[in-house]
Design a protein that fits this description.
Shape: globular
Radius of gyration: 21 Å
Largest sheet: 7 strands, mixed
Helix content: 25-40%
Number of strands: 20
CATH architecture of the largest domain: Alpha-Beta Complex
Structural class: alpha/beta
Amino acid sequence: MIIKIQKRAEVEGLIPSSGSKTIIQSKAYRLIQPHQIVESAIAHEVEEGQVVVEPSLGSICHADLRYYSGNRRPEALARKLPMALIHEGIGKIVSSGVPELQTGQRVVVVPNIPGYLTDGIPPDQCCPACRSGHGENYCHRGRFLGSGVDGLAQSRLVVPAPCAIPVPDEVPDGIAVLTELCSVSYQALAAVADKLAASKVAVFGDGPVGFLAAAVLHHVYGVERERLLVFGAIPEKLAQFDFATVSLVQDYDFSSGPRFDIAVECTGGRFSESAINQAIAVLRPGGQLILMGVTEDRVPINTRDVLEKGIKMRGSSRSSRTDFVPVLQAMKDAGCQRTLGRLLPERRTVIDSAEDFDAAMREAEAHRSWAKVLLDFRW
């Protein structure tokens, strides 16, 4: 359903305010409740050290669909809506107050904005996570675009300059738009980076999250095909993983098959329970289990084997600014681009109105496919 609350108009430019700040008007496609998109205008204050980005290409994530479909807890929806969705995307700089970013430059937007950047304070004066050095990924005062604050489904986005990462000339738009999702895998795997040179790794999940986790393991961390096994349930999807060894989960003997040093669970949803427990089964004593799949339900796990094997478990669902740079560097490689290109659709969805955006979300909700849905914003 589309609810128009004002006449469409061209977005205004920068407007000086009475103080030292500047106000910019942005046209936004906001979700006000499940399946209801509103086209509205919102105002942003532009402060020192911030840049204004015009989003050009976005990608729909399962997290966006959970909001759109109403598959979040009612209290979460009540707290976070209304909100412009989309946190995976790129754009161009339309206004910059910092010399390292120029008008017209292509950038990837980092949706995870730590509190110290928002407030203009040193990290050691921020929250306990930042002060202890655990990283801005766990900042207690941070904001995440499209999850509580307006995301990229708007014509003008204001972010701290460090959250706009330049895209190398060698990386095309369609590949660059996957940076955020790849960076989540990079962040999750960084905790075991020192072990990846010699470890055997199992990835559970043949969807986009599993594909990108396996791709990062191979193209960024250098895990060869012989040491990388991907478990999935659909042969057609597993056929895309030609850089890894693959196995249908329903055909694998988890009681006596090879053992692994590291397992990465990327299934989420109703398959989390089986994938997590299968991962526990294939891990060696002292192995490490990385959880990336998202589910709204509590998942029972085989704690006996976790205890007997001394398995370490770590959860990870977001990334930080520092994770984007190595991913973009890897994306310059033609082989990496060929791999990631398998997730791209045959065509992009042009978004010229709230009706277009609502239709794209409904289509993605109804037909969840292997390929990502790319949104070509025309402001």
